[in-house]
Each structure stands twice: as C-alpha cells, then as structure tokens.
Design brief:
Two copies of one chain form a homodimer. In chain A, strands 3, 4, 5, 6, 7, 10, 11 and 12 form an eight-stranded mixed beta sheet that branches. In chain A, strands 1-2 form a two-stranded antiparallel sheet. The first copy, chain A, has a two-stranded parallel ribbon with strand order 8-9. In chain A, helix 1 crosses helix 2. Chain A folds into three domains: about 70 residues, Winged helix-like DNA-binding domain superfamily/Winged helix DNA-binding domain (Arc Repressor Mutant, subunit A), CATH 1.10.10; about 100 residues, D-Maltodextrin-Binding Protein, domain 2 (3-Layer(aba) Sandwich); about 100 residues, D-Maltodextrin-Binding Protein, domain 2 (3-Layer(aba) Sandwich), CATH 3.40.190.10. Helix content of chain A is about 40%, strand content about 25%. By secondary structure, chain A is α/β, with parallel strands linked by helices. In chain A, a hairpin with a 2-residue loop joins strand 1 and strand 2. Chain B binds a DNA duplex through helix 3.
Chain lengths: ~300, ~300
DNA sequence: AAGTAGCGGATATGGCGCAGTTCCATCGTT
DNA sequence: AACGATGGAACTGCGCCATATCCGCTACTT
C-alpha cells in the first residue's frame, strides 16, 4: 500500500463516485478503479459497495477511513516540519552576554529581531562574566556569546568584533572634575580606580590600566567591584572613579556623572564568539543576522 | 512522496548506513540512495549528512522523523481495522428476547458464545414482549429477536424456528392434581386459566386456548397476568393454573408445581427473527452461529 | 411493455516512465 | 594497499496511466 492508494481511496470515499473522484485526482476512471481494486486485494476485503449510482463505503471501508483520513495532512506536516528545520526555523540556541554587552543597543536589538524572525527557535539568554561565557562555549553549554574581548582561544570557536565604542569616565557627581564636560585622565591620578577583578574580565581590566599608564600615571587600585553594577554604586559612594564603555551611560544613578575623556580615548570592542563545529542552522542564521546588522 | 519513501527513510535513519538499510529492506544500496535523494529533492532540504561511515540525520531529518515514525504502524493498523470490520469482528448488534425465550438454555448460551467469539462487537440485549420486539424489528431499533412465534409479517424480516419445547402445567403445589407426575388437561376444566394478554403474545395465547379446547373444554379465563413472572406468582396464590414452555421450570417458587401433561402435549416454538436488508457482517455472523448452534 | 439513452464501473491493450539490478568510480579510513 | 560506504551510469522489467470498449442498471420515451 502507498500513499497514492490512500489518496485515491479518500477521494472516492468523499465523492461517492469513481468518475468524479478520478476527475478531482487528475487521472482517468479506469486506472482509479484498478488502483482501488489492487488496494482491496491487498487488504483482502472490499472497501466499497459498487452501486448503480456510484460507490458506498462498506463497514471495512468505514473502519479503514477512520484510520487513514489524517494521512495526507500528516504527510504534508512532515514535509513542512523538515522544511522549517532545514531553514533553521525551529531548534534552539543558547546565547550568553556580559552585563556591559547588554547595554549596547545593538545587542538587545539583535535578540528582538531574531526572535521576531524565527519565532519557532527557542533562544535562551544567560548573563555572565567574560570568563564564565568563554568556559560555557568551551563546555558546549553555550552556542554564542557577546563579550568585550577581541581574541579568544579555543578549537572550534570563532570570534568576530562587531562594534567598537569609546569608553567614558564615571565620576562622583560632586567631584570638581565633574563640573566640566571633558576630563583628562591625568587629573584623576590621585583618585582611587574602581574595577571588576581582572580574572572576570581581563581585556577590559588591561585596557583601563593601560589607558592610565598612557596618560602618565600608575592607577591607584581602589575598591574591587564584584560586578559592573557595583562599579556604579561604589562611584556613587565617592569611593573613586572608573572607566566604562559609553553605552553604560544608560545606567543612571544618583551621585554619578559620566564624562567624556579629553585626549586619547580608550576603545571597548564588542565581539560575538560562537561555536563553529557542527553549527546548527538556527545558530548559523543567528550569527549571519548578527554580523549583517553590524556591517554598516 | 509515498509510503515507500518513508519506509526507506526510516530504515536508513535506524541503521545510520545506506548499505545495511538496503539489505534490511531487500533492495540494492544504489536505488535506496536514489530514492532518498528523490525524497530530499521533493522536500527541498537534506535529511541526512553523508559521512564516511554512513549517514546521520540532519535537523530536517530529525524533524521529519518525528512526524513520520508512526506511519508504518498506522498503515498496518488501518489494514487490520478494515480486515476486522470485513470479518464482522467489530460493529454492533441489538438483540431482543421475550422473558420465556431467555429461559431456553440455548439463548443465553448463544449470547455467551457470540460475545466470546466476537469481543469487538458491541451486543446490546433488550427484554420485551413479542409485540414490542416485532415493532422493534420493523422500526429498525432491533436487529434480531428471539420470540415464541412461528411466523412474522414484514418486508425485509426473516424468521427461523430454531427449537421446539413441550409445554408443562403450572399448578398450586397444594392442588390435588399436583400429587401426580402427569396430569390430564381436562382435569382442570373447572379451574381458572391464568394467561398474559393475547395482545402481548398472541401465538402463546392461542396455543394454550387450543390445547384446552382439544381436551374437550372451554377454558375459564382467570386473572390476566401482565408478564410471565406474574403468571407464576398468581399460581402460587392459588388463583388458578397455566401452561408454559418447559424451560420455565427453572423459575422455582414456593407453592408452585410443574407437571407434565398427559395426552397430547402442546409445543412452544422458539424462533429467531432478524432484519435481512443491508445486513451487517456482525449480524450475519450472529445469525449464522445461532442457526448453526440449533441444527443438531 | 419494449426500446433507447445516459451514467457509472470494469476489462483489455499499449506505451511511457520509474524502480531496481549490475557494474564501477570516488572518497575516507585503517 | 585494502576495505567500507555512497553515488553515478547503463540497462531491464514492471507498474501506472491513457484510451477504447464492454457491461449493468436506471430513467425516459414510445
């Protein structure tokens, strides 16, 4: 028995007449009659009573109909499911990001845009620090991550720098320097520098320290902030100053002022890193769209 | 797409290897490869990754598998359902019977035997008097009935007499005649005769009245019993006597004695009547087995 | 009542396309 | 170099469909 037989059977069952069923299917009445006869021979019982005005289902035909009626739709559904999967319209991807990456407007936009374009793909988001994200890629717990570093080591892992943003100073709002729109880094040579631990974000850490050194002074290490939000809070508490990527200025807090840097401005890169071995179609789509969104 | 494609796909998915799958199916590896290729072309996406040691499902292949995996079983189930229906192993029949017919041991045996042989057939049983049963056949509310009459009028209704049973006397156990094993009907010429109304069972009524007349007396009509059980109760109350088919002796009651009739014994026929137009296979089986059971 | 037309299913025949066989090439692994 | 696995090419036989026609039944007309 083939799906062809089932399609022919269903057509006759619906029309109650071989001639009309044949016309609907697009073949002649004699081959349709023969195909139904072949099916009845294979099953071993008649599916139709032939009557002068057409054909009526037998009890066997009724029982058969009840089971095979869904077949054409199921077949179509199988094809559609395969096509959607082949286009990456279903599946799942696990995406990580650092806190500061999330403040880049393009990152939430990429999430929003991808979700809208591929509603059938289950996208899981996870915030973590850079070290954790890299470990997650290596351990295959994450498929792609947004982070602020411009190189990554690891087999089967690719990284693309997708944007660069200038850093800005974060000062207590009562600080004398905060009265001006631009502040030279060297003015803060006597202030404590607040940073997250190097181990959680080495690239950012090194860039900030280098920027201070390039301005002619060795930074005085201040309070260690466990995470980015803490940096802002400590500055608000007048424990010192810091440097953050410009999009962080969205994080407003009482007692905190953001100021552009006078002179050479350190740059923070935003990168997309992802697993490139056995990449799923959904992930490939995600990466393509992310890179495309950052090309102009 | 045909079931053949699905069967071939499932074989490769299970074996992970075209060569072994082909061997399992019973065709060569090249035509299997071509058939899968045709399927992939029709769907428009690859279902397998070809790798050096065989083939692995793609995401599209996995999605396709999830939908089509049940197809072979469903196809088999459809064939089986049609075959069972064709053999009358499923369906429903509605059978009626009179109270006295139910006392014939063969009637419950037919019910028991049919239920065991065709567990998939839903058999509904209904007790009613003869007139109601005949009306039920005519109205197509019943498919077959056991009743005590030897003719029936009605288009599309057939009747077979399946057994004959002698009638016996039902007497109050204190009655002088009850002291003997055999009693002549004429001994009861002065006693009241208890019967069910003629309208509910004309054949039985007429036979009993004829038997009395053949014994030389006109019966004195006694209490009218609404149903058969009432007849026994009235006799126990010493309101008179009656005649019933011999199997009724199973209905024992205090104050009641059954006695064989001396002389000519009236006979009660048990018949099966059924609808014969558009007879279902299940009903045909029921009738066949009932007639076969009563042939020896 | 008989004859005819129309409708519908089934049989017979022929042809084309498809599925399977056979042989062999290519690639990757051992 | 040998082996295992997939896929291409040539060939053959079978199956599905088209076409012609027959048969049975019903309805209509004479």
């Amino acid at each position: 028995m083939e799906l062809r037989h089932i399609r022919y059977f269903l057509a006759v069952a619906r029309e109650g007449n071989f001639t009309r069923a044949a016309a609907r299917i697009g073949i002649g009445q004699p081959p349709l009659s023969q195909q139904i006869r072949d099916l009845e021979n294979e099953i071993g019982t008649a599916l139709f009573h032939r009557v002068p005005h057409g054909a009526e289902l037998t009890e066997a035909g009724t029982a058969f109909l009840e089971v095979v009626a869904p077949f054409p739709d199921l077949a179509e559904r199988a094809i559609r499911a395969a096509q959607r999967a082949g286009r990456g319209e279903v599946g799942s991807i696990r995406v990580g990001f650092t806190a500061s990456a999330a403040f880049s407007p393009s990152v939430p936009r990429v999430f929003r845009d991808f979700r809208r374009s591929y509603p059938g793909v289950e996208m899981t988001l996870e915030e973590a620090n850079s070290a954790q994200l890299v470990a997650g890629l290596r351990d295959e717990r994450l498929d792609a991550v947004f982070l602020r570093q411009d190189t990554i080591a690891g087999d089967g892992i690719r990284l693309h720098v997708i944007s660069s943003e200038p850093m800005v100073l974060v000062l207590p709002s009562g600080h004398p320097a905060a009265q001006r729109e631009k502040v030279a880094l060297s003015e803060l040579r006597d202030e404590a520098l607040i940073l997250t631990p190097r181990a959680v974000g080495p690239t950012h850490y090194d860039k900030v320290v280098s920027a201070c050194r390039d301005s002619g002074f060795e930074p005085q290490m201040g309070q260690i902030a466990p995470q980015l939000g803490s940096v802002i809070n400590f500055v608000a508490a007048e424990l010192g100053f810091s440097l953050v990527p410009k999009p962080m200025t969205q994080l407003q807090a009482k007692g905190v002022a953001y100021r552009e840097i006078e002179g050479e401005v350190p740059i923070a890169q935003l990168s997309l890193a992802y697993r490139s071995n056995d990449i799923s179609t959904a992930l490939r789509n995600f990466v393509s769209r992310t890179l495309a969104a950052h090309q102009s």
